[in-house]
Design a protein that fits this description.
Blueprint: E1 7-10, H1 17-29, E2 34-37, H2 41-44, E3 49-51, E4 57-58, E5 63-64, H3 82-94, H4 99-117, H5 135-140, H6 154-192, E6 198-200, E7 219-223, E8 229-233, H7 256-263, E9 268-271, E10 277-280, H8 283-295
Parallel strand pairs: 1-2, 1-3, 3-5, 6-7
Antiparallel strand pairs: 4-5, 7-8, 8-10, 9-10
Helix pairs in contact: 1-3, 1-6, 3-4, 4-6
């Protein structure tokens, strides 16, 4: 689009997660634009960008109604919502042309919103009738609740939901940037390490993101906000609670005095009952814990 859009149009009445996040994205990129919520076709025709309404999908014309058959779906089979279509068009701009960050946010936030809006399940129900309270639910409950006599209109609540979505969008962006930076940091440490079983980081990093790339890695030592040091036993795969080399059973859930006797490390203070995490007061103590666990 050669000129910056001045009028953003989406549907009126009840709002959904996709049109709320789509609006949040567009207002971050075009903060001076006017947001109009309507189903009046004459008004819709005046929009520079129209999304989730309008019966037209044509990015060249600024039209992003995902309810049209040719709006398409992802390689995963998940159909695009208006948020996904606009993310595909403008998301890279929001990410300052960082393609890795764009992909990370797409996978973490945008694709799940697309799926939920189109009625496609992406989680397995473990307990019958129990589903997680998702970001979709957070946005949905922002709609006026008429049976409890809420008097605020849909347009007022929509903009409140957009404000919330804007915060979430920026926090997800920061979190995914953090993961990408910590991944590079840990992979560099791993490549340079003489003993690839134990990495010592100078700050907490996202270990889950490098597990599959570091097959020899067993423990990661890093500082904690309180000033002491933790040792993480690395999982067999991201999201798993099974560790490659958990701390010895004899150490687990022991009081500090007993733990110090068992490990021969004076400043050890904690070992989790499942064996996935331990803590020492000093960096040297934490490294010693990891080294001791390798031979016990």
């Amino acid at each position: 689009m050669a000129t910056k859009p001045k009028r953003l149009i989406t549907h009126s009445e009840e709002f959904h997660t996709d049109d709320v996040f789509a609006t949040a994205l567009l207002l971050e990129l075009f903060p001076n634009a006017e947001v109009v919520r309507t189903r009046d076709e004459a008004v819709i025709a005046t929009g520079d960008i129209v999304y989730d309404v309008g019966k037209v999908f044509d990015p060249k014309l600024g039209r992003f109604d995902h309810h049209q058959e040719h709006a398409g779906k992802r390689d995963t089979g998940i159909t695009y919502s208006s948020f996904g279509l606009l993310w595909r068009e403008y998301g890279l701009q929001f990410c300052e042309n960082d393609a890795d960050l764009w992909k990370a946010i797409d996978k973490r936030l945008v694709e799940p919103v697309d799926a939920r809006d189109n009625g496609q399940k992406i989680t397995k129900e473990v307990y019958v009738g129990v589903e997680p309270f998702t970001i979709d639910d957070v946005i949905t409950v922002m709609n006026p609740q008429t049976w409890v006599n809420e008097t605020e209109g849909h347009d007022t609540q929509f903009m409140r939901a957009v404000e919330l979505a804007t915060t979430v969008l920026h926090r997800v962006k920061a979190a995914e940037q953090n993961k990408l930076l910590s991944r590079k940091y840990l992979l560099d440490l791993y490549a340079e390490a003489d003993d690839k079983r134990v990495l010592v980081a100078d700050r907490k990093a996202d270990v889950a993101g490098i597990i599959l790339d570091c097959p020899e890695l067993l423990y990661v030592v890093s500082p904690r906000p309180s000033g002491n040091w933790g040792v993480l036993a690395v999982s067999i795969e991201p999201g798993s609670f099974v560790c490659r080399c958990p701390f010895p059973e004899a150490w687990r859930a022991q009081p500090p005095e007993k733990l110090a006797q068992l490990t021969k490390i004076a400043d050890v203070t904690f070992c989790h009952a499942t064996g996935f995490y331990a803590v020492a007061e000093s960096k040297q103590g934490a490294i010693a814990l990891a080294q001791r666990a390798l031979v016990d």
